[in-house]
Amino acid sequence: MELCFFGAARTVTGACFLLQTRRWRLLIDCGLFQGRRAEARQRNERFPFDPTTIDAVVLTHAHIDHSGNLPRLVKLGFAGPIYATPPTIELLEILLSDSAHIQEHDAEYLRRHRGEQIEPLYTLEDIVPTLARCIPLEYHQPMELLPGVVVRLFNAGHILGSAQIVLEVRQGVQRLRIGITGDVGRRAPLLLPPPEPLPEVDVLLCESTYGARRHEPAEQVRQRLQQLFTEVAHRRGVLLIPAFSVGRTQELLYHLNALFNAGQLPEMPIFVDSPLAERATRCFRRHLAAFNAEVQQLLQHDPDPFGFERVRFTLSVEESKQIHQHAPPFAVIAGSAMCESGRILHHLKRYIGEPSTTVLFVGYNAAHTLGRRLVEGVSPVRIFGELYPVRARVEELSGLSAHADAEELIAHLEPVPRTTSIVLVHGEPEQQEAFSERLRAQGFSKVLIPELGQCLEL
């Protein structure tokens, strides 16, 4: 039996792990790689395995870096089942359709403006057959995926429907238990129940996004948001918030709704400039029973924790363009979170050169993305192929992250037997090295950081 790492190895993007024997091949996640355009294109276009030989896929959650290359897998011949939680499947339809639209739009833009003949990785037509392969699997429900392979899913507390995976593989009298954390949520998530502890496993693939960092306390997030909104209102400026449309945008709206209810939010419109976020928010409203006790208590006197009178969802391109007709102050929440595509680029192009603008990042920015360059203070930056000087103020708010920090990851692994082999994935090298040292100090003697393309014999 081999476990191969074809994504999220020494990087935080493109999760894709292949577990294989002579009898079957099981893929865990199938995400898009995000980074330098040419490298991303090459890695997303060609799989390092034959898609027709994959027997099944299990998904941890719906974020594009974990699910976004499924349509191409199907397009190139994968004909097996895709197992995921029901909310993940519902979010997949939203996220994959949006990703297909971006693929088609980018290909058309490059043809029209640069004369490059590039085909989209997949189109909207490829989404229907992909979703048709999806089979819902509830938390804790054992399912025999393949002969001798039983899977169970456990809540990961990361986004709606996110799961940790436990595989029990039997071959003759031998048994091997493999755990995959996916993206681990916070110990006290804002909306969801906390991540569940995993049962004993022999090998555990553990994310390490923030293996060397500590988030600011959650109670400070709302105070910091209130401060930033007040400062922007005072300067009559614009607040731009690049954010994931699924998960992060809803958490932002939840915080802002609380500030509004408390009378602590300055009077300024808040544009959620994302049809994807609007659809995802409707999905969240359909699954309110999945949220934690704090949300359930709020629902007793506030039926909509994700909206209030100053929030305006802009759906059409024309509505998005009209935002620039408004006199500041106002705020815009838009994707993509790392500023690699989407409507946020049009707002950055318009306002990045204004000293009265604040750009607030509320999540992780992978290497070589525009978001990372802005956080690192690079100026000028390239947007739509043109250079723009950065005069805007750039801020980060890590307390809104849906990923566990180093302390929370250590706490999550506390019940894990020290004999378990820990394999660190979904992290950049410096974060992984620091976290590896922490784990060894905690008594884990077998800690491995695999290279991209490396295969481990189990």
Report on this model:
This protein is of the alpha/beta class. It folds into 2 domains: 2-213 and 402-457, Metallo-beta-lactamase, Chain A (4-Layer Sandwich), CATH 3.60.15; 218-400, Rossmann fold. It contains 14 helices and 22 strands. The strands form 4 sheets. The chain has a 7-stranded mixed beta sheet. It has a 7-stranded mixed beta sheet with strand order 7-8-9-10-11-20-21, with helices on one face. Strands 14-13-15-12-16-19 form a 6-stranded parallel beta sheet, with helices on both faces. Strand 9 and strand 10 (174-180) form a beta hairpin. Helix 4 (86-114) runs antiparallel to helix 8. The longest helix has 29 residues, at 86-114.
Give a quick summary of the entry:
The protein has 458 residues and is α/β, with parallel strands linked by helices.
Gyration radius from CA atoms, angstroms:
22 Å
Question: What's the helix count?
Answer: 14
The tally of beta strands, per DSSP, is 22
- Secondary structural class: alpha/beta
Kindly state the percentage of residues in helix: 25-40%
CATH architecture of the largest domain: 4-Layer Sandwich
| CATH superfamily (homologous) name of the largest domain | Ribonuclease Z/Hydroxyacylglutathione hydrolase-like
> Residue ranges: pLDDT <50 for 5 or more in a row?
none
Q: Shape, please?
A: globular
Strand order within the widest beta sheet: 6-5-4-3-2-1-22
Task: Tell me the β content.
Answer: 15-25%
The description of the largest β-sheet is:
7 strands, mixed
Just give the CATH class of the largest domain.
Answer: Alpha Beta
End-to-end C-alpha gap: 5 Å
Topology-level CATH name of the largest domain = Metallo-beta-lactamase, Chain A
Number of domains: 2
Question: What integer is the average pLDDT?
Answer: 95
